[in-house]
């Protein structure tokens, strides 16, 4: 199942109405869905595309996806440090990527490192909790019920 998700996602988008399929955003989304696990040397899946046969949108997401997977903690592994993740990618341990994209990654490496240092997971969690606490769900739900009731009363349906 894990290696079929790319094709399944692309198929889902191909089943949209034709006028939606033609939208540029949907075309790019479809490329990303189908080919984000392809590798520049042809060892990826689902179609074993090689080099520039892989749309650049999928190549960029593929590299970002690998980087994110490396620096993120999972139930089966600890998060890599920024330097470990970069080294792992540069050594080709996660597959082969477009050399131009690798060069771009190296050019922004210091920026990524700085941004990661500035935004920790704990800060993100704190921010999310803070935003949730600011939303008064009871008031929102009550207001919606009251608004619906008022509309019904004005139409004489209650």
From TrEMBL:
InterPro entries tied to this protein: Cyclic_di-GMP/3'3'-cGAMP_PDE, HD/PDEase_dom, HD_GYP_dom
Q: Which PROSITE patterns match?
A: HD_GYP
Which CDD domains does this one have? Answer: HDc (cd00077)
Organism superkingdom: Bacteria
Q: Where is the HD-GYP domain?
A: 1-121
Question: Which Pfam families does this chain map to?
Answer: HD_5
Signal peptide feature range: none
For this protein, the parts annotated as crossing the membrane are none
Q: What is this protein called?
A: HD domain-containing protein
């Amino acid at each position: 199942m894990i290696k079929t998700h790319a094709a399944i996602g692309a198929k889902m988008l191909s089943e949209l109405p034709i006028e939606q399929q033609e939208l540029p955003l949907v075309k790019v989304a479809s490329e990303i869905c189908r080919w984000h696990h392809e590798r520049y040397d042809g060892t990826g899946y689902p179609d074993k595309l090689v080099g520039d046969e892989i749309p650049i949108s999928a190549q960029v997401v593929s590299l970002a996806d690998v980087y994110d997977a490396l620096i993120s903690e999972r139930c089966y592994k600890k998060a890599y440090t920024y330097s470990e993740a970069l080294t792992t990618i540069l050594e080709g341990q996660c597959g082969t990527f477009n050399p131009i994209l690798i060069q771009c990654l190296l050019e922004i490496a210091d920026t990524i490192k700085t941004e990661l240092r500035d935004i920790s997971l704990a800060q993100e969690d704190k921010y999310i909790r803070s935003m949730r606490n600011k939303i008064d769900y009871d008031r929102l739900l009550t207001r919606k019920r009251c608004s619906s009731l008022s509309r019904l009363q004005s139409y004489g349906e209650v």
